[in-house]
Amino acid sequence: MLKFHNTLSGQVEEFRPLNEGEVRMYYCGPTVWDYGHIGNFRSAIYTDLLSRYLRYKGYRVTHVMNITDIEDRIIALSQKNGVTIDEYTAKYIEALWEDFDALGCARPDIVPRATRHIPEMVSLIERLEERGHAYRSDDSVYYRINSFPDYGKLSKINFAGNIVGASERVDTDKYDKEDARDFALWKGAESPDEPAWDTPLGRGRPGWHIECSAMSMKYLGETFDIHAGGIDLVFPHHENEIAQSEGATGRQFARYWIHYEHLKVNGESMSKSKGNYYTFRDVRERGFSPVAVRYFLFSVPYRKQLNFTFDALRGAEKTVEGLRDFRLRLKETRTEPGLNPTLHETTERALKDFEAGLDDDLNTSVALASLHNLARDVNTAIDHHAVREDNKREILNLLDRINTVLNIFEDEPSAMLDAEVQSLINERQEARRRRDFARADEIRDQLATRGITLEDTKDGVRWKRR
Q1: Binning pLDDT at 50, 70 and 90, where does residue 415 land?
Q2: pTM listed for this prediction
Q3: Looking at the structure, do residues 217 and 125 belong to the same domain, yes or no?
Q4: Gap between the Cα atoms of 373 and 353, Å rounded
Q5: Cis peptide preceding 236, ω within 30 of 0
Q6: H or E stretch including 227?
């Protein structure tokens, strides 16, 4: 039984999709004004894991992630650099996919961009006007919060009184509004130089919140299964999405809301002013592998805050290296025909524990513990020559299955070796047989400069990339 903590109900609930065997999910993606920071990627990696696990369980998944490519920072920075917003954001969209690929995230099925969906946003705003949820003022259009009695049902905030300033993303009283709490659906252009669109609403651009309502409903329908995003988006962004979407359709918007907790850096909130703001690229430039970053970012369950330190990341690097060494050691282990029943039971228990952990609100701590316990027990069995041919096949198949979700094991090392490197390894082995240890050490050092480490074992030479 797959269960999630649903922010809407405040409870852990059994997951039952709207249509049996099919999951439609939406993840609030990045605003492409800069390179993605590690906090952004904690959310992205967890959404990737969620999507992968749903597919692992046999669901047909439609995964939508938006890209916000129009907002105040993008406008200001594009104008400062003397380029269009498309020209400005192109660099960061390309970087986003490079980082996604490096971190082992499968690309979402559909990736709508805000600037490509202006007509859908305008149409949705017009529907809200028709139903009395929106009004025009000073060339802008606002959502009338008092018209939606359920406002606040996601965040559980008491909205009595004035809430201006409750969040830095609340649209402040820049224009004339009926109520200070009302938020902008459409912002009238203030200057001829400002990026804007000519629409039946006037010349202007969309508010941040309307973008996700329009794009998610276009690709997933008026009601869909899962809406995911960072905990900081609960209010006002996701609260406003509900008000807009349900105000326009009269139907439930998203059925399950999943929110990822904050990432701290050395126990503090990440901030450029504090000097503890790191993009994924910053971390990679310090020599850490993307797979270690991936492992670290999902090593703590998503509803718990994660404290990022470079010492912790070094620990993740060693952990991933140990798991890969275990898998390689098992592959290279010579086995006899047959099945060790005890090891078979160990393998079955590992699978059961892995799935039980992820079924329980994506508890990655339990899921990862099952993998580490398996590695410990199998390594012990290898030491005692207790692994049989059927066990080896079964365990390797299990690791492949687990990896469809975790994606921490790369392709076979042998497939990555080019002819020259393989030739050097063979030459070193021959030098050792001739007892020419000086040449053998020279080759080891030469390979080390290429990031390849050799290890001599009783079963032969093993190697790995650093």
Answers
A1: very low
A2: 0.86
A3: yes
A4: 10
A5: yes
A6: strand 224-230
